[in-house]
Design brief:
By secondary structure, the chain is α/β, with parallel strands linked by helices. Helix content is about 30%, strand content about 30%. The chain has 16 helices and 18 strands. Helix 3 (about 50-60) links the parallel strand 2 (about 35-40) and strand 3 (about 60-65). The two termini are about 45 Å apart.
């Protein structure tokens, strides 16, 4: 057992004791067999009185097996995370008493752990709750099938949804206000084979603390980006997959542009941040308030800057181009793999290349990269076999940092994320390439010293800030 970093636990075993009990007694569940519970216990805490106390507390026969203090501490740090609200060790049977308390505690816990989403889902035999931390889902609770409908209905009521409708998807919002914490939650209900799955998206309300210099831009990328947003008209587009931080970058931009002399309008789905001085519109497609229809109205509202949450279709793209041509600065997001790929995406949506060339100021691609925990990362000898087959670099790496895991990072090896950017400023020569529909411009980008996502991600890896596994997908798309 000393050869591994922690004792593996399934969720049923984990839920036999609470987080408080696990840490107080320095015990880790080993096996549950009818009326008997077996635990690993810290070698420094094992004694006869502990066994007797646990039997009285848990109401079952207890068997203790000694383990090292280090192994026990690592296991507790991984499976029984300490925080100020309800912890993962709580037994599911306690949730039925006050399901509202559990929901409030669950949301509070997710917020404390900087989680972006809560997934509540049901299967044939069991139900579970997962939360997304630093981009990855972590299972936190199991629920009895009998408890699940009450929790779903409680969420539906809070989100003003129809509790009798179980066949169709529903979307709603909850305004969370508890013990001084105030923020919005987007609720999505999806009918599945064994019942309804709910995803709660926790939205940050205040954008005043967002600083564009802290997001991850390199010096050159930030200067190029600032030049693009200083222009009085044109389009600035940010591309990347869902959850890559595009909206945060947009709001950091709006914070720079937000002046008393400027009229800024946004249409979003959902409104993730609020910023004093900006007029924000929530998309409502069910009543015809789409990106395109909102944009038409915006043009009659004397705007200086328009922010569209996303360019999803040809109609929205055409309206954005029209707004840029009539003297407005338009900011938006789009789903493509690279900054230059944005051009071909717009052309595919039906926007003529000459219009793209004359309106696009700056194209940005971004991704979020998990950072290694500074408390526990360690150096190892590096082998070039770890690179993707098509990735080539002239920089020699002798050692690289790898994730280990400790109590500071909940034994994941990672703590926090940083954005990686690729910024292309459209100058005359690049605009001519767009007009001529010349999409292979690698040599032009290299002449301008434009660093790709792969280049900038590699710098983070080279400096020991992240692992090769974390940047591997970006190295695959290097061009």
């Amino acid at each position: 057992m000393s050869e591994i970093d922690y004792i593996p636990l399934n969720l049923d075993l984990q839920n036999t004791i609470t987080t408080e009990q696990a840490w107080h007694y320095s015990i880790v569940p080993k096996m549950m067999d009818g009326g008997r519970l077996e635990f690993f216990v810290d070698e420094e805490k094992n004694n006869i009185s502990l066994k007797e106390e646990l039997e009285i507390l848990l109401g079952k026969s207890v068997l203790l097996e000694t383990s090292t203090s280090v192994l026990i501490q690592k296991t507790l740090g991984k499976y029984y995370r300490k925080n100020n609200v309800l912890s993962s060790g709580k037994q599911s049977k306690e949730f039925t008493k006050k399901s509202d308390d559990f929901l409030v505690s669950l949301i509070g816990e997710a917020r404390d752990l900087s989680s972006s989403d809560i997934h509540i889902e049901t299967y044939e035999e069991r139900c579970r709750v997962r939360i997304r931390i630093d981009g990855l889902l972590i299972e936190r609770y199991t629920l009895n099938k009998s408890e699940y409908p009450a929790l779903i209905n409680k969420i539906k009521i809070k989100a003003n949804l129809d509790i009798s409708e179980k066949r169709l998807p529903q979307d709603g919002r909850i305004f969370f206000n508890h013990e001084g914490h105030k923020f919005d939650i987007r609720v999505s209900v999806l009918p599945t084979l064994h019942g309804e799955k709910i995803v709660l998206r926790l939205l940050s309300n205040d954008a005043t603390d967002i600083d564009i210099r802290q997001l991850g831009f390199g010096e050159k990328e930030l200067n190029d980006y600032r030049e693009g947003i200083k222009k009085p008209n044109g389009i600035v587009l940010i591309s990347g997959p869902t959850g890559s931080g595009k909206t945060t970058t947009l709001y950091a931009t709006l914070k720079i542009l937000n002046k008393e002399t400027t009229n800024i309008l946004t249409v979003e789905d959902p409104i993730e941040y609020t910023l004093e001085g900006i007029n924000q519109v929530q998309l409502k497609e069910s009543i015809g308030l789409t990106f395109a229809s909102a944009l038409r109205t915006f043009l009659r509202q004397d705007p200086d800057v328009i922010m569209l949450g996303e360019i999803r279709d040809g109609e929205t793209a055409q309206m954005a181009i029209r707004a840029a041509l009539t003297g407005h600065l338009v900011l938006s997001t789009i789903h493509t793999n690279s900054a230059w790929g944005t051009i071909s995406r717009l052309v595919d949506m039906g926007v003529p290349p000459f219009l793209v060339a004359s309106t696009l100021n700056t194209s940005v691609a971004q991704r979020l990269v998990r950072l290694l925990c500074t408390e526990c990362k360690r150096k190892e000898k590096f082998s070039e076999n770890l690179y993707p087959r098509n990735f080539k670099t002239d920089r020699k790496i002798e050692e690289h940092a790898v994730p280990v895991g400790c109590e500071h990072c909940y034994y994941t090896g990672y703590k926090g994320r940083k954005a990686v950017y690729e910024v292309i400023s459209i100058d005359y020569e690049l605009a001519e390439s767009i007009k001529n529909n010349t999409l292979s411009v690698s040599s032009l980008l290299k002449d301008r010293n434009i660093r790709t996502l792969a280049n900038n991600a590699f710098v983070l890896f080279e400096n020991g800030n992240t692992s090769i596994e974390e940047i591997y997908p970006m190295l695959l798309n290097n061009y």
